[in-house]
């Protein structure tokens, strides 16, 4: 290695291994979040491996959050299983570029992995999937493909209908030129975030201006609620609308036999988004975009050039050309645990969410909004409105026992607790409930 003496691979990896084990061994007890973290050091201009590592150890390592730990409940954040982490280290070691299928088995591993997960989620076998960086990128791939479909039917602008659309859907509409203003919000069922099928039917019936895409939620981000995918798919069929299902985390309901019926109808989707760095508990970043129209997807994303390969090279189907071998950690988790093993933590997270909701409701100082159909609890202090919510959340997160994020539901300011870590235990729940009770006025 050049410059000021880099370490050997063995020295560098030994040091990384020691740091990694120290981090993992302490993850259940270190501060969950640092609010605020101090200013980070800029990278020095070549001080050698030992000095660089020492600087990182002193000025960066202590301020890393315990977001893969059991009491981080912000956003929807998964942790990392041992086999997923080991696989991810190997992905970096192997440094494959899965832009094309030439010269390595990696692209075929990806192809088989997306097919295996597609089958496990109950998608139609004709669905074509690729790994992308997250559900935002997956929604972009799916909306871009739907826009291509729309452009072939009519020159009229595309309209997107949704009961609840994640902000990344609007981002995708903006990037693809559909435009954020083309979203038509549809009424949701009383006290829920799931779309009202009658309202959707009516909205599509009176819509007369060009092609329509319906974005359905399989796991809405404030409540974890599901649209009735079977009814929504029938409505889409009647009105010739494209059905996109955003199942960023909720698709993992397929892995728990009690929850699985919530996904009935998913087999009729034209495109589907799922995140793996959330509930599968693989490291960032990892998600899959599935569409039923790889031909149209290729029209949008193909990058033909003499030196690049041809079908079925992945680069023709996603925004990226060069691509990390993201499939391997997902392959390893499925191979290690199976759908049943993954379903165990999915079910456990949902039970913990319900128990958390019951425990905080029983104090009389919090109100749960929108029910707890899956793994997310949206709640708010019973008295004091937005100011009380802000003060409570600030105090809770500053305590370092747990971390939650704010939300808004039915016009009320809320706090969201999302259980998606494979290691969260009943003991963790006791600590979380105690921290919550101690942080309210
Ligand atoms: C998290 C989430 C997204 C965005 O996912 P990223 O992985 O952060 O890009 C999109 N839709 C839903 C429903 C989500 O929960």
Automatic annotation (TrEMBL):
Keywords: Aminotransferase, Decarboxylase, Lyase, Pyridoxal phosphate, Transferase
InterPro entries, A to Z: Aromatic_deC, PyrdxlP-dep_de-COase, PyrdxlP-dep_Trfase, PyrdxlP-dep_Trfase_major, PyrdxlP-dep_Trfase_small
Listed GO MF terms: carboxy-lyase activity; pyridoxal phosphate binding; transaminase activity
Matching PANTHER family: GROUP II PYRIDOXAL-5-PHOSPHATE DECARBOXYLASE, MIP05841P
Origin species: Alkalisalibacterium limincola
N6-(pyridoxal phosphate)lysine: residues bearing it: 278
Protein name: Aspartate aminotransferase family protein
Record-linked Gene3D superfamilies: Aspartate Aminotransferase, domain 1, Type I PLP-dependent aspartate aminotransferase-like (Major domain)
Cofactor field: pyridoxal 5'-phosphate
Similarity field: Belongs to the group II decarboxylase family.
Keyword Ribonucleoprotein tagged: no
Gene Ontology biological process terms from the UniProt entry: carboxylic acid metabolic process
């Amino acid at each position: 290695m050049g410059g000021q003496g880099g370490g050997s691979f063995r020295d560098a990896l030994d040091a990384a291994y020691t740091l990694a084990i120290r981090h993992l061994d302490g993850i259940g007890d270190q501060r969950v979040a640092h609010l605020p973290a101090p200013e980070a050091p800029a990278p020095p201009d070549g001080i050698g491996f030992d000095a660089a590592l020492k600087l990182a150890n002193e000025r960066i390592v202590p301020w890393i959050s315990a977001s893969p730990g059991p009491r981080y409940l912000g956003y929807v954040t998964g942790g990392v299983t041992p086999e997923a982490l080991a696989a991810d280290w190997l992905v970096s070691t192997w440094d494959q570029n899965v832009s094309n299928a030439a010269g390595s088995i990696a692209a075929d591993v990806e192809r088989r992995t997306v097919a295996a997960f597609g089958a496990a989620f109950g998608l139609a076998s004709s669905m074509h999937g690729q790994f992308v960086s997250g559900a935002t990128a997956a929604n972009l791939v799916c909306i871009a493909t739907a826009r291509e479909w729309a452009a072939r039917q009519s020159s009229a602008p595309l309209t997107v209908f949704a009961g609840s659309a994640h902000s990344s859907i609007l981002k995708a509409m903006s990037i693809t030129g559909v435009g954020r203003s083309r979203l038509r919000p549809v009424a949701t069922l009383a006290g829920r975030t799931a779309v009202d099928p009658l309202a959707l039917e009516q909205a599509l019936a009176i819509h007369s201006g060009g092609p329509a895409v319906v974005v359905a939620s399989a796991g809405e981000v404030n409540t974890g609620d599901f649209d009735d995918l079977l009814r929504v798919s029938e409505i889409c069929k009647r009105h010739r609308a494209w059905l996109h299902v955003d199942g960023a985390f909720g698709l993992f309901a397929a892995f728990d036999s009690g929850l699985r019926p919530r996904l009935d109808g998913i087999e009729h989707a034209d495109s589907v988004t799922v995140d793996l760095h959330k509930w599968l508990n693989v490291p960032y970043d990892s998600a899959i975009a599935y569409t039923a129209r790889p031909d149209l997807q290729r029209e949008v994303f193909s990058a033909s050039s003499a030196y690049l390969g041809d079908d079925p090279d992945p680069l023709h189907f996603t925004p990226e050309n060069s691509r990390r071998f993201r499939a391997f950690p997902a392959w390893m988790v499925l191979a290690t645990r199976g759908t049943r093993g993954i379903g165990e933590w999915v079910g456990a997270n949902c039970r913990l969410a319900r128990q958390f909701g019951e425990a905080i409701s029983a104090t009389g100082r919090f109100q749960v909004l929108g029910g707890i159909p899956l793994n997310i609890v949206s709640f708010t202090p019973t008295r004091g409105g937005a100011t009380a919510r802000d003060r409570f959340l600030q105090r809770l997160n500053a305590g370092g026992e747990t971390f939650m994020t704010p939300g808004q539901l039915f016009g009320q300011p809320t706090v969201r607790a999302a259980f998606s870590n494979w290691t969260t235990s009943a003991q963790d729940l006791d600590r979380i409930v105690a921290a919550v009770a101690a942080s309210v006025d």
